[in-house]
From TrEMBL:
CC per GO annotation: cytosol
Residue span(s) of domain Pyridoxamine 5'-phosphate oxidase N-terminal: 27-115
Gene3D superfamilies according to UniProt: Electron Transport, Fmn-binding Protein, Chain A
Protein name: Pyridoxamine 5-phosphate oxidase
UniProt keyword Cell inner membrane present: no
Tagged with keyword Oxidoreductase: yes
Keywords assigned: Oxidoreductase
């Protein structure tokens, strides 16, 4: 499993763009999952970094989490409203692991409350997904061209220029 911490070390440029855009949108991202009929589904999600991991946690009983329970593959894209992508954007893809650790869940809920005031302390979570990152990419505008940074496990980041 490639944790967020490991990913950020192996792919600092891509992780930096992702973290910056994630923060700039109030943590909003778009999560792509696969529906039971095989078609893709796009859903809003506010993933969180905690204890070196990227967590995909949210409202219980939603279709996006049923999708992940059935097929753990995902793509996560930073929310972008600027068609010129002046601030950049990034996406990650991977698989999730449902972590059943009530003590971890409560530490996470406590940290969430301390950071945002949103109180989930004492709640039980249907699904608590850790992201195993298996790839990532970022797009940045550099003068008259785009720089697309791509990362795959076991390889250094590589940059492709598009003019």
């Amino acid at each position: 499993m490639t944790t967020w911490k490991e990913f950020a070390h192996a792919a600092p440029r891509t992780a930096g763009v992702f973290a910056r855009r994630h923060a700039a949108t109030g943590n909003l991202c778009l999560l792509a999952t696969l529906r039971s009929d095989g078609f893709p589904r796009i859903s809003p999600l506010e993933p969180r970094f905690f204890e070196g991991q990227l967590w995909l946690v949210g409202m219980p009983g939603t279709t996006k989490f049923r999708d992940l329970a059935r097929d753990p593959r995902f793509c996560l894209h930073t929310a972008t409203v600027d068609t010129e992508v002046k601030e950049g954007d990034a996406k990650l893809w991977g698989v999730v692991e449902d972590v059943r650790d009530p003590a971890l869940h409560q530490r996470w809920a406590t940290a969430l409350y301390e950071e945002t005031g949103f109180d989930l302390r004492g709640k039980e979570f249907d699904h608590f997904y850790a992201a195993d990152i298996v790839g990532g990419s970022a797009v940045e505008v550099r003068g008259d061209h785009l720089e697309i940074t791509v990362w795959k496990p076991g390889e250094p980041e590589r940059v492709v220029e598009k003019r």
